[in-house]
Amino acid sequence: MDPSLIVRKEILSLQKPFHGGTAWKLGEIEDFSSNLNPLGPLPCLGELIAEYVQEVDHYPDDYSLEFREALSDHYKVPIDCVIAGAGSSELIRLFPEVFISPGDEVLIPKPGFSEYAFGCRLMGASIKNFHLIGNNDFRVNYDEILSKLDKGLKAVYLCNPNNPTGRLESKKKILELAEELEKRNALLFLDECLLELVEGSQNHTCAGEVESHSNMFIINSLTKSFGFPGLRVGYGIGSLGVIAQLEKARLSWNMGGIEQRVAASCVRDHYSHVTEASKIIDGEKRRMSEALKTMGMSTASVPDSFFFFSSLKDIGFTSVEFKDQMLKQGILVRDCTSFGNDCENYTRFSVRTREKNDVFLSAFKRVLES
Ligand SMILES: Cc1ncc(COP(=O)(O)O)c(C=O)c1O
């Protein structure tokens, strides 16, 4: 038989999203394409993993209690406002599985992280976009969002700072939007996965607001902040009502036992690894911006976030050309073409340690001279 004849109609037209983060397959390449803690994983990560290996002879705690307790203490929210996930990706999928019925409308940023639309499409949502555009410096236009809030709208997605544009939105504006949506019985899905490495992120996170906003769901993960994409550790913080519904449909034993124990220890005992990195990045992004501007890239303003998303117009490359040229110099940057909108003339690259950033700047100089 031909399985495509009986598959759900939503699956027929689906295409897997494209992701970067594959520099490890290329050998001796410096990876500036993914946005991770520049200090790398915790130096003691191997020891932590070894310590917990002995526990693989039993199923993990289905409720990830130790990890959720650590998060509950960290964010000062009740433990029942916290859900654990195998990466935030699992929760990006779970959210529409629980809240979206075929035909429901969702409003998603464009450009934005491709998994939101993918998860919604899978559930048959009708997807509308609001646009982050170059002539508004890629900032969220809240009036555009408000003008698109129809009756059938189920959820608005926001990412702060947004991937790939990296602009940081004000907490006040986000909460105002949450309140508008609450009046319309619509949900706010807020992705803060790229926030913690921004200096002063505790002043920007909306995690402490979930008890007073019944329609909020925030995702985050340890992937970027603790620099270990290879361990799948994510979490969501939301109102009691939202989390209770998500918990009903969560995959059993979704987080491995080793991941749970390591993650709890990271949040509880090693959070200085994140704050130290955010301080380094804050100094380095200013230094890199200066150096890039001096070399002729006036668009390389100091980013709000911990990565650059800059126009290549000054130096006359497309996103693909710049990626190819930098790769010849041993550096991988993110080709932004797949993000659509104006992004084919933009590049995205991360801020790392001083030593690595100097390698980047030398390569950049050679590309301009070649
Ligand atoms: C903005 C954003 N959100 C979520 C994710 C998913 O990451 P993870 O599943 O590792 O938490 C990514 C991954 O690149 C991302 O860029």
CATH level 4 superfamily of the largest domain: Type I PLP-dependent aspartate aminotransferase-like (Major domain)
Radius of gyration: 21 Å
Question: Could you give the order of the helices and strands?
Answer: HEHHEHEHEHEHEEHEHHHEHEEEH
Q: How would a textbook summarize the main sheet?
A: 7 strands, mixed
Report on this structure:
The protein starts with 8 loop residues before the first helix and ends with a helix. The model has no long low-confidence stretch (mean pLDDT 95). The strands form 3 sheets. Strands 2-8-7-6-5-3-4 form a 7-stranded mixed beta sheet, sandwiched between helices. A 3-stranded antiparallel beta sheet has the order 9-12-11. A two-stranded parallel sheet has the order 1-10. Helix 5 links the parallel strand 3 and strand 4. It has 13 helices and 12 strands. It folds into 2 domains: 137 residues, Aspartate Aminotransferase, domain 1 (Alpha-Beta Complex), CATH 3.90.1150.10; 216 residues, Aspartate Aminotransferase, domain 2 (3-Layer(aba) Sandwich), CATH 3.40.640.10. The protein has 370 residues and is of the alpha/beta class. Helices cover 38% and strands 15% of the residues. Bound molecules: pyridoxal-5'-phosphate. The site of pyridoxal-5'-phosphate has 13 residues, from helix 4.
Can you summarize this structure?
The chain has 370 residues and is α/β, with parallel strands linked by helices. 38% of the residues lie in helices and 15% in strands. The chain has a seven-stranded mixed β-sheet, with helices on both faces. A three-stranded antiparallel β-sheet has the order 9-12-11.
